[in-house]
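Exercise 3.2. Students should predict the tertiary structure of the chain below and write it as structure tokens, then compare their answer with the key that follows.

Predict this chain's 3D structure.
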Amino acid sequence: MNPKRKNRLILVLLILAGVGAAVTLGLKALDQNLLYFFSPTQVKAGEAPIGHSFRLGGLVQKGSVVREKDGLTIHFDVTDGAETIAVTYTGILPDLFREGQGIVATGKIDGSTKAGKMHFIADEVLAKHDENYMPPQVQEALDKAHENGKKKLAENAAEAATSQSMPGGNAQ
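Answer key:
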């Protein structure tokens, strides 16, 4: 291989290595700044990262809001109809925050449980802005949980009907 070709090959390899390093650094920085959305069902299933920030969305469970004496720390439960996650937030809540309302909270699962529920420490809480709006991810998660509940109800009804049928298999 002549020296001119060798120099070109080295230059091309250096350029490829530089582009590869830049892409790797860019993807790593982007991955650290992404906040994925999870419903309480997905969090309970272990799909959410423990110790890393993500968004938790659902409805504030009625009767679950408890304020501490300091006036800033609030404990409440977020549910999607199927599962419930305990949330602790320290700060000023949005004016539209109330029980039975859709919210999206940004924070981390701390790995502990509170009253038998996974514990989520929220850094930020966002509430819907009017009666008709619900964040698309929250609506999708609630619809999915509702459909799963309907399927379980139908399966339980089918099992009950089967168990009540006669031993010969001829239900009348």
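Discussion points: The first strand starts at residue 37 and ends at 38. The domain at 37-155 is CATH 2.40.50.140 (OB fold (Dihydrolipoamide Acetyltransferase, E2P)).
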